[in-house]
């Protein structure tokens, strides 16, 4: 039995309709958005770690919403607007206090539009006060996840909205006593 070509292609039509749609690429490869967003996340961490407060507008929007309340009192809170975020950061890490934000993963969850993206980011932050290495309120390590929204403004991906979730059991004290190193 011979099936006419036109009829055979109609039989395959339901299969084609079941295929998931391709995500939009908005005129550029998805890898470009992933790379630029990842670089934006690294630049965000570097700006904070180097205390480049005057450069915060390069990595955050003016109306930034940053909620790290889940980290607990003394370690997190809610800050809205670039000025409030800057004030909190300056108070948290004054001169003589050090910290490091390790961006371990930045996953582009969804490219919502060409200028709006949602990501999930995992970060390990260490903060230390050389004069208080055994005081967990001044020297600590936290593992957390950020559910973020980024906006492309002035050619830079900037953090616009972030909800921080603690992924560790609690805030960690990274220094557990003296460690002596001997050479024999």
TrEMBL record:
The keyword Signal applies. It comes from the Eukaryota. Residues 34-161 form the SnoaL-like domain. InterPro entries: NTF2-like_dom_sf (IPR032710), SnoaL-like (IPR037401). Residues 1-18 form the signal peptide. It holds the Pfam family SnoaL_4. This is SnoaL-like domain-containing protein.
